[in-house]
Amino acid sequence: MASSSSSSTSTWSFLITLICIFLFMGLSFAGDPFKFFNFEVSYIDASPLGVSQQVIAINGKFPGPTMNVTTNDNVVVNVRNKLDEELLLHWSGVQQKRSTWQDGLPGTNCPIPPKWNWTYQFQVKDQIGSFFYFPSLHFQRASGGFGGITINNREEIPIPFDLPYDDITIMIGDWYTRNHTSLRSTLLAGKDLGKPDGVLINGKGPYRYNDTIVPDGIDYETITVHPGKTYRIRVSNVGISTSLNFRIQNHNLLLAEAEGSYTVQQNYTSLDIHVGQSYSFLVSMDQNASSDYYIVASARFVNQSQWQRVTGVGILKYTNSKGKAHGPLPEPPQDEFDKTFSMNQARSIRWNVTASGARPNPQGSFRYGSINVTEIYVVQNTPPQMVDGKRRTTLNGISFVNPKTPIRLADQYKLKGVYKLDFPTAPLTGPPKMETSIINGTYRGFMEIILQNNDTKMHTYHMSGYAVFVVGMDFGVWSNNSRGTYNKWDGIARTTTQVFPGAWTAILVSLDNVGVWNLRTENLDSWFLGQETYIRVVNSEPTNKTELPMPDNTLFCGQLGKLQKPQDISYATSMRGNGSKFSFMIIMLVSAIFVVFQ
């Protein structure tokens, strides 16, 4: 008996010693912290506009949880796909530095099959700000699956305002009571989606501010705040195609940040937030608490009388509030046919060049206005048109076709014929065509892109992998003389910019991030029909310093589908860098415990 007790004591002493060793190794290999998330993506039934429908939830929630991380954190997201179709999650605005493999788009990743697990691992290197994630395949974003991403400053980096009392994330967006498969079928049949059925605020329908317009029984968003406190409110337009004007009754919105850049702080009574854009405001709760206040997100550039039902309404409630919100909603800008006000508002959003961003040096220390441009692309869209017998959208006369083998994977395995490096620098003059045509970017080049919107509706354009400098926008057709209007000092650096109908927007981008990066319209219907391309940036001297190796858990498809083994999903965790060491330690520790107790 004594021998057995001695043996047990000896065993536990060994385990404790082993654990201490591994913990010490973990500290030695730690570097930047790891943040872990588990996402189970599934359908749930919900009735955000009073009509029961199937929506896409993350961990049973719609919208999904906000990912709260800090500059340079290593983010590990284990995704379980419980949908009945393939899935990719895109981290919109996260630049994926050196890690195009994790971008979650069909040009870089094979999809996660139904019932499979897959783990994303990326670092939010040298970034701060407000962003969001969403499913990037099959029009799924129209059914949900989105949530916020907050990247906080490290403690040692000062922020250019007093620390707010709390942080609030708000997702706004147009919404249909049909699910994404029905909407997708409508587009594939060559039809428009028509007017949305409403606007959601954090996945909920409008407060019943008007008994005639809003039916009874709809759940609405309520945000409770403390009087006298200042909150940082992060707002993202995660909708399909509708620009929204955001406002809070009787409260000023002090703009502080736009998609990872601190802005010159300016007060707005309302701000236009276009599809795919994110902002954060400082809002002081300095009003009388005699009643609650409306939070409003309403459609822009439409006949308000015909679009009254397409309005999101939530409630801002002080903890000492004495009554319900009442009366008419705060007025939106009255300029249905004149977009000058909105454009001037967009131009007023400027970079805070003296503030520190993710690093201690001022944002303005990168003097983009003094860098020589090496590549110029005039990228023009058009309204939907027939291409090869199908209703499609185009950029420069090309309707993009996603290859069955992702572009980055094709490069890795030196496959030929998957894509063409022939995207035109200006609009084609011949008939439009459907092709996998991409831009050949020069590593460490400085590219000027002019986005010319020849459509009749507002578009926003997003570029993965980078923050781009928005240096100019105006109505009419861009010309070389337009460069005289560029802002070469404090144009905002962001990931998504608006381009007004019949107008242009110019952006500058420093191509210092190796990979394959998506350039697309954020209008989901136009994106689905082909209005995108990719920019391929290659370092001719491959090195892990400019691009990380292909992850161990890479999925294979298309021409490489034969390389995919079913059992790979059991180990669908990315292991590289510090993560590899950490994973290795855990495996060794579990193995040691297993051996000891045999």
Automatic annotation (TrEMBL):
The keyword Metal-binding applies. GO terms for biological process: cell tip growth. Coiled coil: none annotated. It is a lipid-anchor; GPI-anchor. Its main location: membrane. Keywords: Cell membrane, Copper, Glycoprotein, GPI-anchor, Lipoprotein, Membrane, Metal-binding, Signal. The keyword Signal applies. It comes from the Eukaryota. It is found in: Cell membrane. Its cofactor is Cu cation. GO terms for molecular function: copper ion binding; oxidoreductase activity. Residues 41-155, 167-320, 405-540 form the Plastocyanin-like domain. GO terms for cellular component: plant-type cell wall; plasma membrane; side of membrane. Residues 1-30 form the signal peptide. Belongs to the multicopper oxidase family. This is Multicopper oxidase. The lineage of its organism: Eukaryota, Viridiplantae, Streptophyta, Embryophyta, Tracheophyta.
